[in-house]
Amino acid sequence: MSEIAVVHESYSFACMRCGHGWEQSYEIEHHVDADGREFVQYVVDGQVVPSPLSRPTCQNCDNHVVRIMRPGRVASARDAAYRQHRTPPAGPVEAPTTGAEGQREHDHWHLSDLLHAFQRKAS
C-alpha cells in the first residue's frame, strides 16, 4: 500500500445570488491509481466531497454562482460588519425634554434601539 500525501487547504466562499458567506477547510489527498495516474480527493470530516474549485454550491440557496476567496475573508467581513453596527451613527443628538415636575421624561436609551434598523428579519 502506497503512502498518501495530504495537504490541508481552507477557502472562503460568497454566493453572488443570495449573499451567503461561509468558510470550509479540506484535507486534499493525493493518490496514484493502479495505472500510475495521479488524482486528488477532497475530504471534509472524513467524507469525500466534490472539489470546491470545480462547481461550488451555495449552502443557503443551492446556486452555483459562488466566489472563492482566500481563507479568512468571510470572518473578517463579519467582524467588520459587527464593528460597524456596534458603533452608534454620528449625527445630531436630541436633547432630553423635561416634564412639568422638572424630571426628564426620557433619560436613557438602549443599544438595541440604535441597532434595530440594521437587524435582518429572519426568513
Question: In a few lines, what is going on in this structure?
Answer:
It contains two helices and five strands, in the order βββββαα. With 123 residues, it is of the alpha+beta class.
Overview of the structural elements:
This protein has helices at 73-86, 111-115, and strands spanning 5-15, 21-32, 38-44, 47-49, 66-69. The protein is α+β, with helices and mostly antiparallel strands. Residues 102-108 have low confidence and may be disordered. It is 15% helix and 30% strand. The longest helix is centred in the middle third of the chain and has 14 residues, at 73-86. The chain starts with a strand and ends in an 8-residue tail after the last helix. It has a domain at 5-88. It contains 2 helices and 5 strands, in the order E-E-E-E-E-H-H. It has a 5-stranded antiparallel sheet with strand order 4-3-2-1-5, covered by helices on one side.
Query: How many DSSP-defined strands?
Result: 5
Principal-axes shape call: elongated
- Percent strand equals 25-35%
* H/E element sequence: EEEEEHH
Query: How far apart are the first and last residues' alpha carbons, in Å?
Result: 50 Å
Number of helices: 2
> What integer value in Å does the Rg equal?
25 Å
Low-confidence stretches: 102-108
The helix fraction, in percent, is: 10-25%
Largest sheet: 5 strands, antiparallel
Record the strand order, biggest sheet. Answer: 4-3-2-1-5
Look at the helices and sheets and give the structural class. alpha+beta
